[in-house]
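Quick one, T. Sequence first:
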Amino acid sequence: MKKLVCMLIVAMVTPLLSGCFGKGSSAPPPSNFSATAGDGRVVLTWTPSLGVDYWLFTATDPSLTAFNWTGLPNAHAYINATTPYYMCGLFNGTQYYFAANGRTNGGPGGPSSPTIPTTIPPYNASAAAWTAVSPASGVPSTTNLYGVGYTSLTTCGNIATISATGSFAAVGAVGAIFTSPDGISWTSQTPSGFTSDLYAVTGYAANQNNPTNSALRWIAVGDGGASIYSTDGINWINGRAYTASNPALRSITHVAGTYTAVGDLGTILSTTDGTTWTTHSSGLTTSPLPNLNGVTHGGIYVAVGDGGTILTSSDGNTWAVKTPTLPISSNLRQVTSFISSYGSIYVAVGDAGTVVTSKDGGVTWVTQTVITGNNLVGIAAESQYVANPAADTSLGFISTAQFVAVDNSGNAYTSVNGYTWSNLIPTNATGLNALVSSGFGYVAAGNAGATAYAF
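Structure tokens:
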């Protein structure tokens, strides 16, 4: 009990207390201590010494050291940190300062490192931030990529054995599957004998921060209603068999361990393992039934499709048809959601630059002014960390969202509310088909093995 109390005191009050652990000693601060900023985050790296435990300190005051952090604004301490160390939830556009010290065997903290400053930049997918690679490293130029997904393997304050950026997967023609640890370099995982076109992929790790048992499951879906799944991203196993008469599955999302896919002729299916699927009625009554091209889950499920089709569901079983404020004849291609304590925003995009937005939990959908004449093929969202945020006039509540959409000509568009959009931002990639957010940036994939990324 005494040891536990001392640990709490050390973690919450000051790193300088000695005597709680008895036999430890101080150690020099880490060498080559540096900080690299990203969207609302920073990655701290250093050269560690064997047997030394490092503690990290941050605040927005330049006087920061390892000894005075408790009284400074926006101060935090992180114990027993390993390199690289990801700090998240930082305010964009704000100057932060970082320091570190070391100890062995639970001893008192040693001298403070030099304090290093880093400004967390205001993040958007600017022209300078996008990098296009055609074909992407490890992807043949003959392969068309139709879908891209991301799975988070660790949370911020991560262990060193897995990157906090998680894992990406891209799928495409003739059963092509590629995985990547960073969205930049890709490795082919295409299984022998699987030849169905794959249109979408998503993944979920139930045990984050556990490198030996992440409970990871990727599921990809495609032509003929076929599915394929993997529990490690390397070995892929056939799930639902290809059947020529089955409608193609075009998009997939997950809520914890339940995966929901949508596809042609109003098809909606769900699974927990990628092999056994349950069929759900879409509630659509037109003949023929419209194709469903995109699905997401925030507080509710939303599916979108041809002819401006929008469906919502609270549980994935019963679906309701929604009517936008203005009729939509264009096909909707994809949809995403942003949920925060302030409110929810759903944004769907489609052909001829169509954008449809809901700010009331999917009840009402407002058709936006066309932002481009090109077909919008992907939409994704991330959180921004903004100091002293104000209510957005288009929403009536505070938005900490950053939406990014891409079109088939390789342009990106940004919005903080789903209503007002930027001018086109070239990604320098063409023939894009899909977009995903990792929480730290965006990766788009397309024809001829093309990818574009913004981190």
